[in-house]
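Hey, I'm writing a tutorial for new members on how sequence and structure tokens pair up, and I'd like a real worked example in the thread rather than a made-up one. If someone can provide the structure for the chain below, I'll link this post from the tutorial.
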Amino acid sequence: MSAHPDNHVQDENHEHHHKETFITKYIFSQDHKMIAKQYLITGTIMGVIGILMSLIFRIQLAWPEEPNVLFEFFLGKWAPDGVMDADIYLALVTIHGTIMVFFVLTAGLSGTFSNLLIPLQIGARDMASGFLNMLSYWLFFISSVIMIISLFVEAGPAAAGWTIYPPLSALPMAQGGSGLGMTLWLVSMAIFIASSLMGSLNYIVTVINLRTKGMSMTRLPLTIWTFFVTAIIGVVSFPVLLSAALLLIMDRSFGTSFFLSDIFIQGEVLHYQGGSPVLFEHLFWFLGHPEVYIVILPAMGLVSEILAASARKPIFGYRAMIASTLAIAFLSTIVWGHHMFVSGMNPFLGSVFTFTTLLIAIPSAVKAFNWITTIWKGNLQMNPAMLFSIGFVSTFISGGLTGIILGDSALDINVHDTYFVVAHFHLVMGISALYGMFAGIYHWYPKMFGRMLNKNLGYIHFWITAVCAYGVFFPMHFIGMAGLPRRYYTNTRFPLFDDLANVNVIITIFALVGGVVQIIYLYNFFASMFIGKKATQNPWQSTTLEWTTPVKHIHGNWDGPIPHVYRWPYDYSKPGHDVDFVPQNVPLKEGEEELQH
């Protein structure tokens, strides 16, 4: 694909022609930079709610059936005399998983940084469609509100696990959390998927059509490559979850039987027949596994950019990084069956999914080795963004290694549905993606808000978070291998697990400390908007185009003409130059060769 000239030029003084009101500037804004902030702040609020839920059920696991004043405060009637009701535990797990996977790590991470960086790094005035962009945010906001409302319905929020398997999700009479709360969950997710599809289509069109002159596909920063590929995965896989949700609504409300077979309730035979809950598993995981990479790929792009800038070295293996991103995108759509090894799958089919799952380790390893090689012998600038990026590489490798065990059907069957699985995906996806998100916030905060975050608070935030993250999820591997099942609100009925009770206490203490330390980050984030040190135009001395725009936000990004691009985005410490970074808009010197990355 060739780069495009300024076919998207708007009047540079556009802002002077339309006096913006508070509502058009901050609420119904069509400026991609403002929409990025809206995604980030909404995702942060949802993240606080999701983490609070996890702390509540961690306290329950550490000290089961003991009265707790926190339970009475947060759960009300669901914790009579401060003892958690069994039904609400699964509901907390369900909504925590849903919020963190979709509302924080998908919308909060991808929505924030795709919106902020795509136009700025490719040299565009804005997204292809500002209105569609605004609409995608507001649909995300509405879906978030509906998900929160579902917490307050009388029968209780959805309680079928974040994977919402039938029949718990398909029979409104199955339990309290199968009623109105489940319906609201499905409505919320349908709106969320519409939002995600609008955003993804906008990102794809913008990257293909609105690149500035000279910005060929092989001169795009790796951030843009990962956002672009993530958007493509979303367009391919999210509609499948939407179809599953719609069929589930029909089963719940219109008497169909897509996912319901012979069902007995208290000896009574229900009229459902012919359906299969395993069909729902296929539909859910066809989105559910690519979703892991929709979450992790943007974080990989952010980390690649930050490691190069903070090591003052070109990214190692630029084209291999692009190839591995494309390979991960393709393979992620054909490995969903490894979530279903215990569903009665034909062993031959299980071996096929084992093969494709283990195959995805190759492009993942390419990325890990390239990050390590980028850092190797670099002039490392150990700012908070760099620390979180190195933390990302650490958790991605340590969490990914256990994926090899879970990807093998013969080994997975032994630890399926135990805390081993919880430990694996929280490390490789949850913590890694959060580290990528934190790294991106610390690095691009000056571009978003014109001020710097407090570096010392950033160091405290990183080190305590890093210690607590491993303190929580490393021991979980061992209690999982000992057979402790997940999603049980207490294990006191099983003498077999009595010896593991102390481990749960240790995990919960680490979780509580890690949760509390996020208050330091939240203070730093919101206070720095007003009292943070004012940012210079290019505080990290980076080479990409977003740092050529003025600190003051203007609609259209650049005051004058859009800069043209003459080189790849990683000209750090290049021989023959006086400074250790050469921005993309600096023409090549006479006789200077563009790096063959």
